[in-house]
Amino acid sequence: MIGQIIEIIAQQKEVDPSEITGETDFYNDLEMNSLDVVSCVADIEELSGVSIPDDKFTDIHTVNDLAELIEQLQKGK
Questions:
Q1: How many domains does the chain have?
Q2: Domain range spanning residue 28?
Q3: What is the pLDDT of residues 13-57, one digit of tens each?
Q4: What is the largest CA-CA distance in the chain?
Q5: In the prediction, which pLDDT does 1 show?
Q6: Rounded CA gap, 28 and 76, in Å?
Q7: What are the two backbone dihedrals, phi and then psi, of residue 32, each rounded to the nearest 5 degrees?
């Protein structure tokens, strides 16, 4: 899943996927704003088949944060 997340982010931000790791911070490293993150998460929700509750967005800062949340939600299905 993390590889797919990185691919989506790289496409959206027009950067090389090798520049993105699990520790990459959406806001500080990629200079994304909240709308960028929401757009990215929407693509990932579609891919993963889960819906991330709005109150969880404040917990997402890094690629790993997002991957872990997706995994938790998939297990809870």
A1: 1
A2: 2-75
A3: 999 999 999 999 999 999 999 899 999 999 999 999 999 998 988
A4: 33
A5: 83
A6: 30
A7: -85, 150
Which CATH number goes with the domain that contains 38? 1.10.1200.10
Angstrom CA distances, 54 to 38, 42, 44, stand at 10, 11, 14
Is 5:66 a contact under the CB 8 Å cutoff? yes
Provide the whole-model pTM.
0.87
What is d(CA 55, CA 32) in angstroms, rounded to the nearest whole number? 19
Question: DSSP secondary structure string, 9-50?
Answer: HHHHHT--GGG--TT-BTTTTS---HHHHHHHHHHHHHHHT-
